[in-house]
Write a structure and sequence with these properties.
Number of strands of chain A: 43
Structural class of chain B: mainly alpha
Largest sheet of chain A: 14 strands, mixed
Oligomer: heterodimer
Number of strands of chain B: 0
Shape of chain A: globular
Number of helices of chain B: 9
Distance between the termini of chain B: 38 Å
Number of helices of chain A: 5
Strand content of chain B: under 5%
Structural class of chain A: mainly beta
Order of helices and strands of chain B: HHHHHHHHH
Radius of gyration of chain B: 19 Å
Radius of gyration of chain A: 31 Å
Largest sheet of chain B: none
Helix content of chain A: 10-25%
Strand content of chain A: over 45%
Helix content of chain B: over 70%
């Protein structure tokens, strides 16, 4: 366990809970601190010894900059100009055909002079995506006997991309000449472009892909093991490009297309033509411009139109959810996941449509009409989102995170995987479907998790998970270091003061700006409180969208703000921002401590209130306030306060401001401090 | 040109020669600092300061002795001073894990630190090829844990744990060499 924590810490993959565990262990075990120190220093030393030299060069340049007495900014500029990746390098010793002379590109300082050679430019249609469908027909071209191979080069490469030659890995760099058998590897966000000296054909290998170089001419041949490539095959030279994949073969002589292979294969031709042959049975199809074909289970091998067909009048199907956000490789399909089209934010999903996300960084966020959210990420296939009666999600593989608004008791939301089902009334959880098992982990609320095989079920509450598989007992297990959250029923809050509160889904809105002056017996504040019971410490956080505030008036008469409230048996604790007050703008524990703090009159803010209970000692209060996604490490305000009795309620407060509160979470802290 | 001649030119005021001297030693100097620094941000800072100090005091260097050893002793002293200052001034801002590193990364003699670096370089040569690939992906190509996991067809946890074990084995190898040298 300790080794795992240290390993994750060094990889930068330790979350807050894990860090707390590690620090706890460090406090108890001096030897662990020694082990951590060894791991950290060796990690640093390996990075220094094995790195690609970029950091070394930075140090040298920074020293020279100081010795030259250059201003810091100019040295930085000089350095960046030197170190910036060169998009296209002139090919050294590369007899490319030329149409017109071109000024040599400037190259970084190199041990030998770079010979600039004219490079032919090509239309931007390289970006055409060719999904190579299974079973592409062979081109009716006679095979020319293979000629001598021609030099093939890396034209441009993102930092981090690699070429594997034999057992050796090396960074992919411009001007690298490829040898038959070389494997080009790209990671997330990386691309490599290769060119053939015999003709202007270009191949761009996209992120998270693997490509094997076979030969450079007569015919040019590459193998796409996985991922995606875009290519523009030149028409003039008479030489074809053959792209092999595990299940199919594509041939093209004058075309711009994109090919992607992640399990199933898809080719989209934007210009010219290509043929696809399925290896398993030799079936083939010829594709023209704006056509695509898919090689996938259960799909016929045929040319399909890329442009979406217009639905016949009256055939429009009601939308069951809307795609709010799309990131990376996200596709919508009807029928088979292999036959899909790229998804766009704003697309209204019908009950007949499913969703595919590909790649670690891909993400799709959907919202149902009642504000239930579904997040689909990584390599996932969601075959269905709803049926006629209720929300019903079919997850074939991958992971979804669900934030489910309270559902009608007679129409709960259900999610199914090949191994299990989840019945949800209102909660937040992550459901994962792998090949041999499914897993649910609940952050907030509870779900009923049913194993499909034998209908055995278990209730899984916040801070617990369960796994449905053939060989494991079905039980709710505490998440190691996992957080437990209180289930808050937003629909059952009670409010007081001068406000107008409404709840919609997971959003809570206060729309009234109080006109009560400070001197009035009627407070300008308004609170909305929800039941929340625990005698342990808590951490409350929420997102506040500041819609409108009191107009600026005389100082001391127009203070406005918003905050979080925690009610205890003996007192009420309010963490809030109060702007324009008599004592100035502040971030404060009301009546306890105030910290000068000022912010704008609109925007989105995040607040966190932590109350750590201690036996026989005052509770420790901590608060923070920030904008954006990056939460600051430290606390903006801290103090101690004697609190008696358990927590009874949590909620929101506004003072002469109209706000919308979202993302309310109440985490139960692990244990009382001694 | 050999290093001694380069140093002579530096002492005669040739700044370009100093750039060549830095190129000779920057990687190992950074590795030396890295083996003894409780936080990564100190590595480049101390390396920078050490070179600047060396240039400004190059007339004090005795030709015929090891320039790299001189650099290391400069870096060592700078590192110790900076660690003390940083932990004193930044204690409130650091997470507890970082604080412990500043407390525990030892102030060992520079000679021992030197031998550790040489030991590490030697022990790296003995790492099996597959694990060398893993190290290269992590440290040379800066692949993420997940990307490495995909390449090896293993889980992310396997990558993290294996890296942990390799680092520990390298540490053990270095310690064995130091013990053998002592005896």
């Amino acid at each position: 366990m300790d080794a795992e924590l240290i390993a994750a810490y060094l990889a930068g993959e330790l979350d807050e809970e894990g860090l707390a565990l590690l620090e706890e262990a460090l406090a108890e075990d001096p030897e662990l601190a020694r082990l951590l120190a060894d791991q950290v220093t060796f990690d640093q030393a390996l990075r220094a010894l094995l790195g690609d030299g970029g950091a070394d060069r930075k140090v040298v340049r920074s020293v020279l900059g100081v010795l030259d007495a250059k201003p810091v900014e100019s040295f930085k500029t000089d350095f960046m100009q030197t170190m910036a990746p060169v998009e296209e390098e002139p090919l050294v010793s590369c007899p490319l055909p030329s149409r017109k002379p071109r000024t040599a590109l400037k190259t970084p300082a190199a041990p030998r002079p770079a010979r600039a050679l004219p490079v032919r430019r090509f239309a931007a249609g390289l970006a055409a995506a060719v999904a190579l469908a299974a079973g592409v027909a062979l081109l009716a071209l006679r095979e020319a006997p293979p000629g001598p191979d021609t030099a093939t080069y890396v034209l441009s490469a993102s930092k981090g991309s690699a070429v594997k030659r034999g057992e050796q890995y090396r960074s992919a760099r411009p001007n690298t000449q490829l040898q038959p058998g070389d494997l080009i590897l790209t990671g997330r966000g990386q691309e490599v472009k290769i060119g053939f000296s015999a003709d202007p054909t270009r191949v761009t290998l996209k992120e998270s892909s693997e490509l094997k170089y076979v030969r450079g001419s007569n015919p040019k041949q590459i193998e796409l093991a996985k991922g995606q490539l875009e290519t523009s095959v030149a028409p003039e030279t008479g030489d074809r490009l053959i792209i092999m994949t595990p299940g199919a073969e594509v041939r093209a002589q004058d075309a711009q297309f994109v090919l992607s292979h992640n399990g199933s294969l898809r080719v989209e031709v934007r210009k010219g033509g290509a043929s696809v042959r399925r290896r398993s049975d030799g079936a083939s199809v010829a594709l023209g411009a704006d056509q695509y074909a898919v090689v996938g289970d259960g799909l016929a091998l045929e040319a399909r139109a890329l442009a979406p067909q217009k639905a016949p009048a009256g055939a429009a199907e009601a939308a069951v959810a809307t795609l709010l956000r799309v990131q990376g490789e996200v596709y919508v399909f009807a029928g088979s996941p292999a036959d899909r089209k790229r998804a766009q934010a704003g697309h209204r999903m019908t009950a007949a449509e499913g969703l595919v996300t590909e790649g670690k960084s891909s993400l799709a966020v959907l919202a149902y009409p009642d504000d239930t959210h579904l997040e689909v990420a990584g390599d996932s296939v969601v075959r269905k989102l709803a049926d006629a009666k209720a929300k019903h999600v079919l997850l074939d593989q991958g992971a979804v995170t669900a934030d489910v608004v309270r559902q009608p008791a007679d129409r709960p939301m259900t999610l199914e995987t090949p191994h299990a089902g989840v019945r949800v009334v209102g909660t937040r959880f992550v459901l994962t479907a792998q090949q041999d098992f499914s897993r649910v982990q609940v952050d907030e609320g509870a779900v009923r998790f049913t194993r499909t095989r034998d209908k055995q079920a278990v209730d899984v509450r916040s801070g617990y998970y369960a796994v449905a598989s053939l060989d494991l007992p079905l039980e709710a297990i505490p998440v190691p270091g996992g957080a437990r959250y209180l289930e808050i029923d937003l629909a059952s809050g009670a409010w007081d003061g001068d406000g107008a509160w409404t709840v919609q889904g997971r959003s809570v809105r206060q729309a009234k700006i109080s006109r009560n002056p400070d001197a009035s017996p009627l407070s300008p504040a308004s609170n909305l409180l929800f039941k929340a019971a625990t005698d342990r410490g808590i951490e409350v956080e929420a997102v506040v969208h500041l819609n409108q505030v009191s107009p600026e008036g005389a100082r001391g008469q127009a203070a406005w703000g918003f905050g979080l409230v925690a009610e205890f048996a003996d007192r009420s604790l309010v963490l809030r921002s109060l702007q324009g007050g008599a004592a100035g703008s502040a971030f404060e524990f009301k009546g306890v401590k105030a910290q000068p703090f000022e912010h704008g009159r609109d925007g989105t803010y995040r607040m966190k209130l932590k109350i750590e209970r201690r036996k026989g000692a005052p509770a420790v209060l901590q608060g923070k306030f920030w904008q954006g996604d990056r939460e600051p490490d430290g606390w903006l305000i801290e103090d101690e306060l004697v609190l008696e009795g358990p927590l009874t309620q949590v909620g929101f407060q506004t003072v002469r401001s109209a706000c919308t509160f979202t993302g309310l979470k109440v985490k139960i802290l692990k244990q009382e401090s001694p | 040109m050999d290093e001694s001649s380069l140093i002579q030119r530096v002492q005669e005021g040739d700044r370009a020669a100093f750039a060549e001297v830095m190129d000779l030693h920057v990687r190992r100097l950074r590795a030396f600092i890295a083996l003894n620094a409780p936080a990564a941000h100190l590595i480049d800072e101390i390396a920078h300061e050490a070179f600047v100090f060396a240039y400004n005091h190059v007339h004090e260097f005795q030709r015929g002795t090891s320039f790299f050893a001189w650099l290391k002793s400069i870096a060592w002293n700078l590192l110790r001073a900076e660690v003390q200052r940083f932990s004193r001034e930044q204690a409130n801002q650091m997470k507890y894990a970082e604080q412990r590193l500043f407390e525990v990364v030892p102030a060992k003699p520079v000679e021992k630190a030197t031998r550790e670096l040489e030991g590490l370089e030697n022990c790296l040569d003995r790492v099996p090829p597959k694990l060398k690939d893993l190290l290269k992906m992590r440290y040379a190509l800066a692949y993420s844990t997940r990307e490495i996991a995909e390449r090896f067809d293993q889980s992310a946890a396997w990558v993290r744990t294996t890296l942990f074990r390799v680092r520990r084995q390298l540490k053990d190898c270095v310690e064995s060499r130091l013990s053998a040298e002592k005896s």
